[in-house]
Amino acid sequence: MPAAVILCESTIPIHARAAGKAFFSLTSTPGLLLILYVATGVLLGLVVYMYIKTKQVRSMQRERSSKRSSGYITEHADEYISSLDTNQIDSYLKEKETHAGNGKPVNKFSVPVIALMLLAGMCAALPALAQEAGPKKAFPFGESGIIITLILIIIPIAGGACIMIVKLLNILRKYRRQQEAEDASDFADYLSQNGAVEEALERRKTALQYKLNNSELAGQTPAEDSKGIIKNIVSHGALPVVAQKKSGLNRPSVDPALARLVLWYIGCAAFWLLFGTTVGEYVGIKFVAPDADHVSWLSFGRLRPVHTNAVFWGWASLGMLGLGHYIVPRVSNTSLASIKKGWYTLILINAAVVLGSLCLMAGINNAGGEYREYIWPVQLLFGIGLVIALTNFLQTVARRTTKEIYISNWYIIAAVIFALVISLVAYWPSWQNGLGETIIQGYYMHQGVGMWFMLFTLGIVYYFLPQQLNKPIYSYSLGILAFWAQILFYTLIGSHHFVFSSIPWWLQTTAIVGSMGMVIPVAAGTTNFIMTFKGAWHKLSSSYTLPFFVTGIIFYFTGSLQGTAEAFRSTNLMWHFTDFTVAHSHLTMYGIISFFLWAAMYAVIPRLTGKEAPQLTIGIHFWLSLLGLMFYTIPLMYGSTMKGLMWMEGKPFIDSVVFMAPYWLWRAIGGSLMWMGHLFFAYNIYKMLSVSVAKIKTSPVEQLNQSYTAAEIKL
Amino acid sequence: MEFFNNHKKLFTAAFLLFFTLTLFVAIIPALNNEKINRSLPGAVPLSEDAVKGKAVFIANGCVACHTQQVRNVAMDKAFGSRPSIAADYAGIKRTDTWRNTATLMGTERTGPDLTNIGSRQPSVDWHLAHLYNPRIVVSASIMPAYPWLFNVIDNAPKNAVVVNIPAAFAEGTGKVVATKEAMWLVAYLQSLKQVELPDGRPMPAFLYKKEPKAAAAGRAVDEPDGAALYATNCQSCHQENGEGLKGAFPPLKGSKVVLNNDPELMVNIIMNGYTGRMQEGYGAMPPVGTNNNLDAEEIAAIMNHEKTSWGNDAKKVTPDDVKKLMALVKDQAVAKGK
Predict the structure, then answer these.
(1) pLDDT tens string A332-386
(2) B64 lies in a domain?
(3) Domain end residue (candidates: B145, B168, B191)
(4) SS3 category, B150
(5) E strand intervals along B82-208
């Protein structure tokens, strides 16, 4: 342990010298480095604290063992006696009668001591690794973007350290318990040697045996749950493989017509998720095996947009709209204005994705702008679908029975309005000649993400997170602040995809400034969600939807701020055009949007069908998706940083291609894990949709009702 | 607040805020750029074939991996002699009724930038072999193969463009013949050349130039890396092992020109190109040195790499020698031109 401390201390001055003079300015790179060091210092402080704590316990132990011989127990005998319970006294007295001997407990200290040593060893190894990586000159630790990334990485590491400390405290607690056991055995020895204490014990026994008759307050009436408070009792539980989580509560039933609509949306979304990620998986494999096939319809350039568009318009958009059709009427405390319109939207968007995918594979596309690869007649179907959804939502809100418009509906309806504006701007030909096309492209591709997917999904979270936690959102005002700040800043940032290109310099700078402004809505949103969790964190371990929400919140914070980090000119130099962008878009579109959508879907489907998916497969889905995402993004981020540096050094282009091969392989592996997760998701959807069990639960009542009506008819 | 409880007012306000911002960051700048930018005087409109080739380029989604923008940062120098400017794109109009404008600037560089590919790699043979299967000419490439742009025919007609395919990549016994689409696509790639700025116009600067390494690192660092320069400028044809490709690109290993102790012809070929071995079936060599703006030090480094690799063992040249010869061959070229 001391070795670890020394190792770490020695790294700090080395870095500080390398970083430069203005050490205390928080705006400078060294200032940010300082923050990093402070974070590391805090961690180290905790480790040292734990070390001291351990030492204390050990020295206490030494002290006690020296006292044991000197009559410590005799002095405290009364205290010990009063802490005994009846059984203990009884058994002692019986033992005494039979003159049985007392066996001393075995010394078990070795186990926690070894565990402690192991932990200490790990702590020593961590800084040692950091030391090894530190002085490597090739990696640009000084770049502000990198520092931000490092800080974002440190957040989960700090979390890990906290868990470690809690575990360590547990071990210490066990250790202390063992000491108590020893004291007990000493006390036993004392008892066996001292006969006069028996009387005292007898007295104590009668005192302890006094009992209330348990009906002092209740009277003689038998217990009955007359208000129907106790529900959800599982009486035939099998041996669980994983911890049993709470099952969804039975809710007042939803209009079956609406339920059917929402389920169809979610079912279609799940299909497009499977389809889109199967394509994505195959496209990822092509980086490793470019000659996997030689079919024109399956070539990389044609399949890549099929993947992106299918998951954007098929999976995420249909998923969001499906949940929207549930939320908008619910928080308006009314019914959906028109179920029929909901079906039209669903059909139109599905048609757009089917036609669009076919067109792209056939080589018919809109000439190169990312995410607007569908030609306008296809995207028009999507647009009409959105117009119908918008009128439907607005009519629903107009006939709401609540006075205010709940914040979810702000986000959801604004998202639909903005998506229509964006699509119109992107497809209208009047301003697309020459660089106009590029300026619109930058605007479109990022507004699509921020104003459609992110805004809509936030609306979903503002409804389902409080619902799943069974408590109101922490601050309505923060939600409103985040809403306006998102519109103000997000709209500006599109052109950061074309930094250093020939679009006007001022426009690039505006985009960079806007990207920094995004800290405001992101911090506001994250704070709001985290504070909603306050006092309800314990529910996390007993719920299968909340882990999806928490993951989404973490990625909402880290993923969004990573976007800010990427926008600076210095980081753009290194990361632009590399796979870093791909990693980032997966962290956000997958880490944020998809995880939130899954959370909401696992929450809502049981309410619609009365049937839950097996908790085991939900857990497998969660972990495969999360681990897959990590395997996908982390190697890609590291590899592409190095690739960018190779380009800056003027290395031959093909060298960077060769260099990326292992990272592309990791990406394919991560992608495969994510894809397997989606298979489990599809299975879960299937299990939630198959209605057999719900039927069994309701059918006796239905039968009775039918026989009653039949009887009435006869009469 | 009353305002927020009225859905008409609330959503109109949100729409107006968003739309106003949209006007100022997207629509007005886009319209303004259309208004103030015109094509450069030297710009040549795409030929009919090149227009069709561009359609093939678009249909196959090449923009997913290939950018067409030289940014004003030093690392992009490898792809063009000057940063791209708005005027380079000003002449690009809506493709057709169905498809939007195709500036094809791209957002990802999984493959190299193509802004100046027509100058950097003008060889039709190279492009055709590369399109049939990129691994024929660049073994480490991960670009897709485009065999559907070719026909494999046993008896190729006389006027057919036959592509010389090494045995390892051949499918069947027939000859590989380029389709019209392949020839269009190559015509488009050949047309991608940076247009020179009109005289007197200052060239936009490349930013973030690499600082010269500190003296402490030793002088050797200052010299350009011949192997890396070879890989960037020469390797795709002459190959990493210097053996070229049979029937397309001559070997440098054991080449008389490379081994010649008088470097004049070698400098001449690098600066002015070469058609001397066309009758042997080799393609025309482009003026790589001129196209890629290589300076005397870089050319000397490349020449010395070629003169001392793969078993070659010829006398090295100095940058000063090369500088003089460059001036000499430039005069020759000008004289020839006149």
Answers:
(1) 999 999 999 999 999 999 999 999 999 999 999 999 889 999 999 999 999 999 9
(2) yes
(3) B191
(4) strand
(5) 150-153, 162-163, 175-178
* Distance in angstroms (rounded) separating the CA atoms of residues A710 and B254: 102
Containing structural domain, residue B294: 223-337
Q: What is the CA radius of gyration of chain A?
A: 32
Does residue B213 sit within a domain? no
Among A286, A299, A577, beta carbon nearest to B109:
A577
Closest by Cβ to A404, choosing from B5, B98, B103: B5
Q: Are residues B268 and B318 in the same domain?
A: yes
* Sign of the Cα pseudo-torsion (B4, B7, B8, B12, in order): positive
B3 inside domain: no
Distances (CA, A) of A535 to A161, A166, A421, A540, A551: 22, 19, 41, 11, 18
Separation between Cα atoms, residue B103 and residue A367, nearest integer Å: 8
Q: Are residues B153 and B52 in the same domain?
A: yes
Name the A residues in 440-459 with CB < 8 Å from any B CB.
Answer: 440-441, 443, 445, 447, 451
Q: Which of B7, B75, B133 sits opposite A648 (nearest CB)?
A: B75
Same domain? For B172 and B271 the reply is: no
Q: Which of B163, B190, B146, B145 is nearest to B54 (CA)?
A: B190
**A265/A327 Cα distance (integer angstroms):** 13
Does A305 contact B61 at a Cβ distance shorter than 8 Å?
A: yes
Chosen from B6, B7, B237 to mutate, greatest number of chain A CBs within 10 A: B7
Q: Which burial class, exposed, middle or buried, applies to A198 when counting CB atoms under 10 A from its CB (0-12, 13-18, 19+)?
A: middle
Are residues B183 and B58 both part of a single domain?
A: yes
Cβ–Cβ gap A305/B106 under 8 Å? no
Contacts 24+ apart (CB under 8 A), B93-99: B93/A433, B93/A434, B94/A429, B94/A432, B94/A433, B95/A367, B95/B55, B95/B58, B98/A364, B98/A366, B98/A375, B98/A376, B98/A377, B99/A365, B99/A366, B99/A367, B99/A375, B99/B58
Best to test chain B binding among A296, A375, A437 (most B CBs inside 10 Å): A437
Interface A-B, measured as beta-carbon pairs within 8 A, has a size of 264
| CA end-to-end span of chain A | 88
Q: Are the CB atoms for A635 and A663 separated by under 8 Å?
A: yes
Structural contact between residues A502 and A435, judged by C-beta atoms closer than 8 angstroms: yes
- Torsion angles phi and psi, residue B94, rounded to 5: -50, 135
ipTM above 0.85, yes or no: yes
In this structure, are residues B123 and B286 in contact, taking their beta carbons and an 8 Å threshold? yes
Question: What is the SS3 assignment for B63?
Answer: helix
Quick one: average pLDDT of A234-247?
69
User: Does B328 share its domain with B245?
Assistant: yes
On whether the CB atoms of residues A434 and B86 are closer than 8 A, the answer is: yes
Residues B91 and B160 in one domain: yes
For chain B, the domain total comes to 2
Q: What percentage of residues in chain B have a pLDDT greater than 70? A: 94
Q: In terms of Cα–Cα distance, which of B63, B14, B48, B176 is closest to A577?
A: B63
Query: What's the rounded Cα separation, in Å, for the pair A77 and A79?
Result: 5
**Can you give the CATH number for the domain in which B122 is found?**
1.10.760.10
Question: Rounded to whole angstroms, how far apart are CA atoms B237 and B239?
Answer: 5
**Would you call A417 an interface residue with chain B, using a CB distance cutoff of 8 Å?**
yes
Half-sphere CA count of B199, side-chain side, radius 13 A: 0
CA torsion A483→A486→A488→A491, rounded to 10°? Answer: -130
- What are the C-alpha distances in Å from A640 to residues A578, A645, A661, A663? 6, 8, 11, 8
| CA A218/CA A212 separation, integer angstroms | 12
pLDDT on residue A19: 40
pLDDT by residue (tens digit) across A46-85? Answer: 878 888 887 887 787 777 666 665 566 666 677 777 777 7
Residues of B in contact with A501 (CB under 8 A): 69, 71, 84, 105
> Would you say residue B31 lies in a domain?
no
CB–CB contact B61 A501 (8 Å): no
